[in-house]
Hints:
This protein is α+β, with helices and mostly antiparallel strands. The chain contains six helices and 13 strands.
Amino acid sequence: MTSAPSDADRRRAVEPVICYPNDTLPAPEMALYAAARATARKQSETWVPPRDARCFRVPAGHFFRITSVEGPQVGDLNLWNADDLSERFYSGKTRALHGTHITKGERMWSGFPYLRPMATVVADTLGWYGIDDYGGSVHDVIGTRCDPYTGNLLAGTQYHHCCHSNLTRALAQELGVSPAEAEPFVHDVLNVFMCTGFTRDTGQYFMKASPVRPGDYLEFFAEIDLLGGLSACPGGDCSAEHSSDVAACHPLLVEVFAPEPGALEGWLPPARNGYDRSHGVGSGD
């Protein structure tokens, strides 16, 4: 069974089918968001130091912007429901619904049983990049985050300033708990500004120098009350390695903007997913 069949070429030539056609997804109200953003005023800012992370809060109906400042820098973003940390960003389902990388008009979705939009991308200054000849693009939902466990597994290291550890420390400080209590809530990320893809020959996850420039930003509309965590990756622009004390690293800036009263008239935060959660038990199915 390990030999190629006589019709191998025909089998390879079968056209793919999109697993989750997304034309029936609830469409974000981009025109309403744009009108509200036009008169929104800055409420707060959070500076994320190089090789470290910080938490920030965004009320539902507000906007938040992540900006690269001083030099090219990628960031690892976690999002939680500010009132219930069990609801968190689900990179896998976001990837299934939108693709390997997200941009303006696409959303960050929460996990089961909630499965609703947490944040909508409303502006992306790197939207011009598209998909390059290597299959690379920016803002991926395929990488998990650099972490100390994989580093230890592959190289026997004890590196504490990778994004997983950075996010763990930041969340522990925000919640006033120990790192051990905070760590289970840290989850797979949106890799903001990171340029990644899969190699054509081996299917391996790759990274390359991010095209991000000082002043580039990714901006979101908060669909629910959010607690965010952002790590300025120790790989800098991730042109060589992603857990390093040698790579040039720079801070990231998070700004929160509040719309004028009445600017979002008629808008409501999305409800939790409508599935009845019976899983076929006692439902008559």
